[in-house]
Amino acid sequence: MKTLFLASLFVVPLLAAEHVVPAxxxxxxxxxxxxxxxxxxxxxxxIHEVTVKAFFMDVTEVTNDQFAEFTKATGYLTLSERPLxxxxxxxxxxxxxxxTLGICHRAxxxxxxxxDYRQWWVPIIGANWRHPDGEKSNxxxxxxxxxxxxxxxxxxxxxxxxxxxxxxxxxxxxAARGSAAGSRxxxxxxxxxxxxxxxxxxxxxxxxxxTGEDGFTGTAPVGSFPANGFGLFxxxxxVWEICADWYxxxxxxxxPKQNPPGPDTSYDPDEPGVMKRVMxxxxxxxxxxxxxxxxxxxxxxxxxxxxxSNTGFRCVKDVAAK
Length: 322
Fold this sequence. Notes:
Elements: H1 2-16, E1 25-28, E2 31-35, E3 48-52, E4 55-58, H2 64-74, E5 101-105, E6 121-125, H3 152-162, H4 169-177, E7 240-246, E8 276-280, E9 300-303, E10 311-312, E11 316-318
Parallel strand pairs: 7-10
Antiparallel strand pairs: 1-4, 2-3, 4-11, 5-6, 7-8, 8-9
C-alpha cells in the first residue's frame, strides 16, 4: 500500500491548486484520445477520436469497507442478498427457491472448453458481497479488497448515496490510458516490464489452475500494484468495473466525438433480449489465453441484475463549472 500512500501525498495536492479535489479521488483534465483497439474483438473497433470533459475519478475501486459504510447508513440489500422466488424469476430451479445466491468461479473437471463460460461460473447459495466465495466465507482481512457480487443496480445505489456516478465507457478508457495513450497496457507496451507484475491477473492454465505468481489467486487489496499515469490504481485487473453505458457491439461506428454517453439501447448477440451494461478493466480471472480484459481497450458486458465474484466498480464525479 506504500504506492497508494505516496499517491495520496503527491498526486492530489498538485492538482488541488486548480480544483478542490474530493477525498479519495483524482482530477482528470479534459482531453482527446484514440479510443478502441485492433488487438481484440470487433466490438473494440474502429479506433476513433474522442474528447471527454474534465471529471474526478476514485483513486481505487470501491472497497468492502466503503460499501459496508454505505449499507450501514442506508440498510441497502444488494440483489444477491435478496431471496429468489419463482414468482419473480419464472423457471427458477426448486433448489434455489427462497435462497440467495451469487455466481462464483469454480475450477471445472476435465479439459475446459473456453467457449463455454458455464463450465467455471457456478451459482453458489449464500454467496454475496459479505460472503464472496459462499456462505461459509467472510470478509475477515478483506476490508481493503474491492467489493464484488454487485450489479449495476447496486452500484447505482451506492453512487447516489455517495453523491457520485458511474463513469461512461469513454471516461473510463481515457482515465485508464493515463499517460500511456496508444500503449497496449495502461503502463506501457511490456506486460511484465523487467519481470515485474503490474496488475492482478491470472497466471497458469485458465480456468483450472491459477499459480498466483503475481501474489494473488483472487482479489487483491486495492493499490497493491503500481498506479497509472493519472495516479489511478487497478485500472487493469483485480475486478471488472461497471460503467454507465449500455452495451452495443457496433457503437463505435456511430459514437459521437464529444463526451459519448453510450447508446440508448443494448444488444448482445450471445444473449439476445438481455439488456447489458459495459464493464471495463478485466479482473484477476483474465488470462493471456482467454479474454485479455486487462487491456485498456477491452470491453465486456453484464446484465444489470447480475453480480459476479470478479465484478466491482469505481465512481466518478462531475467538475463544477467555475
